[in-house]
Every structure is written in structure tokens, then in C-alpha cells.
Amino acid sequence: xxxxxQNFHTPMKHLLLGLCRxxxxxxxxxxxxxxxxxxxxxxAFAAKPAQAKSAPASAAEVLQSSVQKWxxxxxxxxxxxxxxxxxxxxxKVRACDQALSMDLPFSNEETVRVxxxxxxxxxxxxxSVAGLAPDIPVQAKAPVKPETPPAPVKRxxxxxxxxxxxxxxxxxxxxxxxxxxxxNIPVNVLxxxxxxxxxxxxxxxxxxxxxxxxxxxPTLLVKRGQMVLLSVGQAQGFQISARVxxxxxxxxxxxxxxxxxxxxxxxxxxxxxxxxVTGL
Length: 280
What we know:
By secondary structure, the protein is an alpha+beta fold. The protein folds into three domains: 59-129, no CATH class; 152-218, Type Iii Antifreeze Protein Isoform Hplc 12 (Alpha-Beta Complex), CATH 3.90.1210.10; 221-279, SH3 type barrels (Roll), CATH 2.30.30.760. The chain has two helices and 15 strands. A five-stranded mixed barrel has the order 10-11-13-14-15. A four-stranded antiparallel beta sheet has the order 1-4-3-2, covered by helices on one side. A two-stranded antiparallel ribbon has the order 5-6. The longest helix has 46 residues, at 2-47.
């Protein structure tokens, strides 16, 4: 009887030992698998690059963003409906230490003037606003009527009357005042013939080309070492004139130093014409 019981427990003992070994093997493989997963995943976390900080916006981007937001608020539209014309690549936009101010200097709303207080500068930007029409069901759509195009807005400005060459001294005979469609003109155009007096051209221009403020500059009317006529007083009343020596070059409207050769006294005057200076 005792022998039969011993024979019964021996197979059961081997079975339990086998199950324990199988369980230990599974646990060991599970731990090994977890270790492999951790080792393979660790480099992915370590190799993930840090997000680079975005570069600060340039002066031109700040200007364009400010104009877009201002137009969107003033016309009650979304910012993505506002489109800005590309800025002139020859005009460099400077950074502004203060908040930019904007207004509409002309009768139309296509040109926005942007001004900076510190440092002082201004820039003109052309804008357009796209309208978003509401969706209309197909069965409710009415026949589309042709729209009458709006009448073009015209503006008086100066255009070259003859071919202009760089360095040419301008007067009223070189320009004409014409009424031109504003949709085809640049910004900063000149409007009065008086604006080109005592000015010279800085680039070659063909007849019919609108003149802009950056196309001209005050011409050199007084040269250093020349004798100039200094006038002090009112032209209609008491006035004194004397010949003095220019101590520096001067363009129209600039203040220069002068010297009286007889007395050796140094004076200051403002350039008013070729070899003509008024006393301060």
C-alpha cells in the first residue's frame, strides 16, 4: 500500500517541477523582452532633437503683419482676406522702436501710409481686400447680372515730358502735369512742378514715366571756395547784400558756413539758388 502511494506521487512531483521550470522560463523571457523594448526605445527618445526656436520677425514682416491687421479691423474683414502688394525691393524697411501708425492719405482705400515716430520714416503700401460671397443653394440662385466696372480713380501727378538722364538739372520744361489712373501708378509720386525746382535726376527715365520722390534729389548749387551772394533782410524792404566765400558745398535749402574775406568773420546762411544764400 505504501509502495503504490509512493509510485503515485513520483509522476505528480515531476509534473509540478516541469510546470515550475516552464513558468520560470516564461518569466525570464518576458523580462528579457521588456529589456530589449526599453533598450530599443531609449535611443529614439534621446535622438529626438529639441525644437528650434523660431527666428524673430524682420522689419518688413512686422510692417506687413501690422498693415494686414489694421486693414482687417478697419474694414471688418478677416486678415486672410487682405492682400499686400510686394514691397519695392530697392527700399529697405527699417525697424521701428515705437508702434507703427497707419492712415489712408488718398481718397481711395488702396494705399496705406505707414509711419514710424522713432526713427522717423514713412512707407506706402498698396492693399486689396477680397470679398467672400455667401453660399446660395442651387435652386435659389438667381441669374447673374453683369457688373458694371467701377470708374477708374484718377490723380494729378508729374510725368517726364522728355527723356531724362541721370544728373540732369530739372525745371518746369522737363515735366508735365497729367491725370493718371491710380491703379497703374507707383507710390510717392510728385504732384507739383515746384517739387522739381533745383533738383536733379538720379536715374534715366523715359517720357511719360511718373516721377517719384526717390527719383530726384536737391542739386548742388554752391561749391566750397566759391564766392556767393549773401542777402540779409526782406526782399520788399530793407536788404543788405555782400559777396562772401562758401566754406562748404550746399544743396537747395541746406545751411552752410560762410566767411567774409575782408573781416575774416564767419557766418551761416541757407542756400536759395545758384551761388545765392540768405542770412540766418
